[in-house]
Amino acid sequence: MGVQVQEISAASVPEGAWLLDVREDDEWAAGYAPGARHIPLGQVSARVGEIPQDQTVYVICRSGHRSGRAAQALADAGWQAINVAGGMQDWAAAGRPMSTDSGAPPFVA
Fold first, then answer.
1. CB 16 within 8 A of CB 55
2. Against a cut of 0.90, is the pTM above it?
3. Own/partner pairs for 36-44, CB < 8 Å, 24+ apart?
4. How does residue 1 score in pLDDT terms, banded at 50, 70 and 90?
5. Among residues 96, 37, 93, 94, which one has the least CA distance to residue 67?
6. Smallest Cα–Cα separation from 67: which of 3, 103, 20, 9?
7. Backbone angles phi, psi at 71, to 5 degrees
8. Beta carbons within 10 angstroms of residue 65's beta carbon
9. How far apart are CA 100 and CA 49, in angstroms?
10. Number of C-beta neighbours around residue 68 at 10 A
11. Which of 74, 60, 55, 65 is nearest to 3 (CA)?
């Protein structure tokens, strides 16, 4: 472990933040935060070029565990990464907006 990764609540993620969703495809399809970028955890290292190094990256998953691992790896590699503690479960509980590509009502899978 290198850099200490900051954690914030889903309710505290700033509007318009660069949000990286590391959940699997089926979880993403069920519901996601509008404007989030989807890169499943297993693909983050291969797709790291898609993640900006010049701004803070907020990392989210279902509960905060996978996003914590991703945020730690990004922070150790020089990114300013913050873990969204509680993940999409807390995002939904906080009443933050959610979307789906299918038009179905969003939910946290």
1. no
2. yes
3. 36/60, 41/66, 41/69, 41/70, 44/20, 44/70, 44/73, 44/74
4. low
5. 37
6. 20
7. -60, -40
8. 13
9. 25
10. 20
11. 74
- Best CA proximity match to 106, nearest among 85, 82, 89, 81: 89
- Bridge pairing between strands 81-85 and 18-21: unpaired
Residue pair 47/13 in contact by the 8 Å Cβ criterion: no
Classify 48 as helix, strand or coil.
Answer: helix
* CA dist., res. 100 & res. 64, Å (int): 21
C-beta contacts of 39-46 below 8 A and 24+ residues apart: 41/66, 41/69, 41/70, 44/20, 44/70, 44/73, 44/74, 45/73
Per-residue CA distances from 34 to 12, 53, 91 (Å)? 16, 21, 12
Side chain identity at residue 82, one-letter code:
I
Q: Which amino acid is at 32?
A: Y
pLDDT in tens, 18-47: 999 999 999 999 999 999 999 999 999 999
